[in-house]
């Protein structure tokens, strides 16, 4: 589905079967709304599916294992920092290659909350351990930090879900004063239509009375 087709479908949904409805949303407004709803949709979708096999439904966004570049500014005695890809959105799968002396192992990171790091590092049952193949990892400021204790990290590999690029449509002047360009959605049509439905609901909620909104929302839901 192209961005232009998505826009036409959106206009159809917000004005369907109602000759008195004349809701006009410009291309620029639709592009902004779609991109905002796309991010919300993906966040909710991954939040539900990451722990299930259904996550494969979003395989077009899943990037293969990538070796992360070490962050020279985040080198510390207790952790090694790595730079996340620019289009990173959520973690898929991962592993870390660590070395102690002449011994090398593949470790599975344990993701932890930054606020709990200090206490976890002090506890012998939770702190990083080469013998127990345990390394603690945090995410902050588009960086990954892998905490160690008596061993070094040689490489960090990450498979991740990328953020879909923002869409755009030719035919208007952007806020920066430039001519817009055509950038189509990268998601499957079925996902794109779900996002369009979210856009439609948001607009209808602002234009119609509660009864009209509930009726139109029920119609849109039957299309998903």
Structure, explained:
With 224 residues, the protein is of the alpha+beta class. It has two domains: 3-59 and 165-221, no CATH class; 61-162, no CATH class. The chain has five helices and eight strands; from the N terminus they run H-H-E-E-E-E-E-H-E-E-E-H-H. It has helices at 3-15, 27-49, 117-122, 189-207, 210-221; strands spanning 62-67, 69-75, 79-83, 88-100, 103-111, 134-140, 143-147, 152-162. The chain has an eight-stranded mixed sheet with strand order 1-8-4-5-6-7-3-2, with no helix packed on it.
Structural class estimated from helices and strands: alpha+beta
Mean pLDDT: 83
Helix content: 25-40%
Intertermini distance: 16 Å
How many domains make up the coordinates? 2
Number of strands: 8
Q: Give the percentage of residues in beta strands.
A: 25-35%
Concise description?
The chain is of the alpha+beta class. The chain contains five helices and eight strands, in the order H-H-E-E-E-E-E-H-E-E-E-H-H. Helix 2 crosses helix 4.
């Amino acid at each position: 589905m192209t961005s232009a087709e998505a826009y036409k479908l959106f206009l159809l949904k917000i004005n369907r079967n109602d000759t008195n409805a004349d809701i006009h949303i410009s291309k620029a407004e639709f592009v902004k709304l779609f991109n905002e709803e796309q991010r919300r949709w993906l966040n909710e979708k991954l939040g539900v599916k990451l722990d299930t096999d259904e996550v494969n439904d979003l395989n077009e966004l899943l990037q293969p294992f990538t070796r992360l570049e070490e962050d020279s500014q985040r080198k510390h005695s207790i952790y090694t920092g790595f730079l996340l890809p620019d289009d990173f959105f959520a973690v898929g799968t991962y592993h870390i290659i660590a070395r102690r002396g002449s011994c090398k192992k593949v470790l599975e990171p344990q993701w932890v909350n930054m606020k709990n790091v200090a206490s976890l590092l002090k506890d012998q049952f939770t702190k990083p351990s080469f013998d127990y193949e345990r390394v603690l990892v945090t995410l902050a400021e588009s960086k990954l930090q892998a905490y160690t204790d008596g061993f070094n990290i040689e490489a960090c590999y990450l498979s991740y879900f990328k953020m879909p690029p923002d869409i755009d449509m030719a035919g208007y002047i952007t806020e920066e004063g430039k001519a817009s360009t055509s950038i189509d959605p990268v998601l499957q049509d079925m996902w794109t239509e779900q996002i369009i439905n979210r856009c439609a609901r948001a607009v209808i909620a602002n234009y119609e009375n509660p009864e009209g909104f509930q009726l139109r929302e029920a119609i849109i839901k039957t299309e998903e």
